[in-house]
Amino acid sequence: MGIQIAGLVHAKQKLQRTLSGRIGNVLANANAPKGHIAVYVGEGNRRRFVIPISYLNHPLFQDLLNRAEEEFGFNHPTGGLTIPCSEEYFISLTTILSCS
Asked: What does the angle CA 35 – CA 83 – CA 98 come to, to the nearest 5 degrees?
């Protein structure tokens, strides 16, 4: 239980650094229901997905967050949290997470 909470805190800190001080981020998540976050996925034309915050604690999703940090840093020009993977991979990952 302590490891899961520590992982969630780490993911939350990453998101706060990514999203802090950005008007675009507030607008991007304005339509996300409570307990969810909007992310942009894909190469080239990005598609918006709204996912539960609970996904952030999963190791596979944390790997995607680390890749996003490496590729985009914390000041991405589009303002939203962008995940650097294909839509197909993201959809399969979220399907797995929704079943667990």
From this structure: 45
